[in-house]
Specification:
The chain is an alpha+beta fold and about 230 residues long. The chain folds into two domains: about 5-80, Nucleic acid-binding proteins (OB fold (Dihydrolipoamide Acetyltransferase, E2P)), CATH 2.40.50; about 85-230, Up-down Bundle (de novo design (two linked rop proteins)), CATH 1.20.1440. It is about 30% helix and about 25% strand. It has helices at about 85-105, 110-125, 130-145, 190-200, 205-220; strands at about 5-20, 25-30, 35-40, 55-65, 70-80, 170, 175-180, 190. A hairpin with a 4-residue loop joins strand 4 and strand 5. It is elongated and about 65 Å long.
Length: about 230
């Protein structure tokens, strides 16, 4: 086959499903080409020639094809993120994969988001149990930032007034945080917003309010995203 139709890129496998009697279809997040779906022929066969391609491992993949479904030609394994042994970390990884699987478009280079995902998996693998939820919140906010939906966690919606740790805040997409008063419904206290910005969610309330904030943002900016793994942990 002409090399004109051969491509290569660092990549992660976000999702895989059986295909035919011995193959799999891999949905891959590539650094240079965004999402690429490809057939891994014979990868379910037993024996030395079979290919064991797993999520949460960084590969360098080569593939061919002109149609939407490509054909995997070669895979070199790079860094392995060891999150399978801890169910909480595994669920977090599944959540990240689901989120990206529905967002990444084909033929769009996503180097910053790719490195963010790689580094997030690395952080999860190293975490001793105290920072998992902040790692997820940081990823969500950074992902939105890379997509053009950045949120200020330091100032109210006027861009001048600092967030008050003792105040209650609502949030208006496209504008930002605003103070609420009395019995008016609020999304988060100021200390939760500032804690999220500082990277130290210290209480259960702060964790819950930070989670509610990022869920509202994802729900607003990415309304068609359906995340099943949220039911398990995040």
């Amino acid at each position: 086959m002409s090399s004109r139709y051969r491509f290569q890129s660092p990549a992660f496998i976000l999702h895989r499903r059986d295909y035919g009697e011995s193959s799999r279809i891999l949905s891959c997040f590539t650094r240079e080409y965004g999402r690429v779906d490809m057939v891994c022929k014979g990868c379910r066969k037993s024996g030395k020639s079979s290919k064991v391609l797993e999520p949460f491992r960084r590969y360098h993949l080569s593939w061919t094809g002109k149609s939407d479904l490509k054909t995997l030609v070669h895979a070199d394994e790079g860094r392995v993120h060891t999150i399978h042994q801890d169910s909480r970390k595994l669920y977090c990884g599944l959540y990240l994969n689901e989120l990206l699987h529905g967002l990444i478009r084909a033929l769009e280079s996503e180097p910053d988001l790719f490195e963010l995902y790689d580094n997030t998996l690395h952080s999860l693998a190293l975490d001793q149990g105290d920072s998992i939820k902040y790692i997820l919140r940081y990823f969500e906010l950074s992902m939105l930032y890379h997509m053009g939906y950045g949120v200020s966690l330091e100032y109210e919606q006027d861009g001048v007034t600092p967030i008050d740790a003792d105040a209650n805040y609502g949030f208006q997409p496209e504008h930002g945080f605003f103070k609420t008063s009395g019995n008016q419904q609020f999304l988060a206290r100021g200390d939760s917003i500032l804690a999220l910005n500082a990277g130290r969610l210290e209480t259960t309330r702060q964790e819950q309010e930070a989670r509610n904030l990022t869920r509202q943002l994802i729900g607003y900016y990415l309304p068609d995203t359906r995340i099943q793994s949220r039911k398990l942990f995040v």
